[in-house]
Amino acid sequence: MNKENLKSPITLIYPGIAIDGFGLAGKSHSGEVNWIHHGLASIGSSLKSQGYDVKLIDMRTLDSWEHFKKTIENINPEIIGISISNVDYKIAMKTAEIIKGFKPSAKIIAGGLNPTIF
User: Fold this and answer.
1) Confidence of residue 61 (pLDDT cuts 50, 70, 90)
2) For the chain, what is the total number of helices (H) and then of strands (E)?
3) Which residues pair with residue 52 across a beta bridge?
């Protein structure tokens, strides 16, 4: 697809650091750090097929909250989707607070198991 035809950029965030923490993707024996939930991957794929520029932030690949802040500032997103499971709820809320502190106008969409149930 031609870059001129791309729609608004969308950033998807997987905040899965509650169990193993930052910087352990691919380095831990826990299966949790070696995959991303299918829902988030499906949404990203669907958005890309519709012409959206999709960025994915897997927080497990980052080193710290400061690294997350720099990453989100560099992307400068308008629309953010955060996948929230019960175990990552507090992490997801902190993620949203950081984004809103940097960019109050950003639209944050919460999805995943926790928002679906509650």
Assistant:
1) confident
2) 4, 4
3) 7
